[in-house]
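TA notes, week 10

Several of you asked for a full example with nothing omitted. So below is the full record: structure tokens for the whole chain, then the designed sequence directly under it. When grading your own attempts, check the secondary structure regions first.
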């Protein structure tokens, strides 16, 4: 018996436009957010999102449910295109999800405070800079776990590495990020 994901893919492959719209509606924002974290530019993230969705559509027939979930397959396609983009441009502008940082409730709800807004913006910038300084492997693991909220097993499947390696990268990345932020705090006198 086919899973819901498999049925949805089958419907797309048979030309059902509503099924494709359902896939786009379900995954476009997540793909955009992931792309934005790596580029830090809305225009590039939008372009990458479109490229990823086109590639997904073109390669739907290669999805195999016995190899993992549709979401992981789709994110692998996205990850590969993002890596290609990185190799072509040879830069990662930023990987912190500024949208998630903006959504974090860092302000005092009782009264708007301009100083608090400046502090929040500076905290977000420090975090983005810290993530930028990490190796791509550590940065990717932290983004997928701490910003995308993916379980360790899904990250392992997506990256094609053992779950223990995922946990190790996340732990090392967090430690390195904490050191970078502490160093930055000491250099600038910034209050966390």
């Amino acid at each position: 018996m086919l899973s819901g994901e498999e049925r949805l893919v089958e419907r797309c492959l048979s030309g059902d436009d509503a099924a494709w719209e359902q896939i786009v509606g379900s995954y476009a924002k997540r793909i955009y957010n992931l792309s934005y974290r790596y580029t830090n530019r809305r225009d590039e993230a939008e372009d990458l999102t479109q490229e990823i969705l086109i590639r997904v559509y073109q390669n739907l027939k290669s999805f195999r449910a016995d190899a993992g979930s549709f979401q992981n397959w789709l994110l692998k396609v996205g990850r590969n295109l993002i890596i290609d983009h990185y190799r072509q441009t040879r830069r990662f502008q930023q990987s912190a999800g500024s949208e998630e940082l903006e959504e974090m409730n860092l302000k005092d709800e009782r009264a708007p405070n301009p100083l608090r807004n400046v502090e929040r913006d500076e905290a977000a910038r420090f975090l983005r800079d810290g993530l930028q300084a990490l190796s791509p492997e550590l940065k990717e693991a932290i983004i997928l776990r701490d910003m995308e909220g993916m379980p360790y097993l899904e990250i392992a499947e997506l990256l094609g590495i053992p779950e223990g390696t995922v946990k190790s990268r996340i732990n090392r990345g967090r430690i390195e990020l904490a050191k970078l932020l502490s160093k930055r705090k000491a250099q600038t006198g910034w209050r966390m």
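Residues 91-111 have pLDDT under 50 and may be disordered. Use that as a sanity check on your answer.
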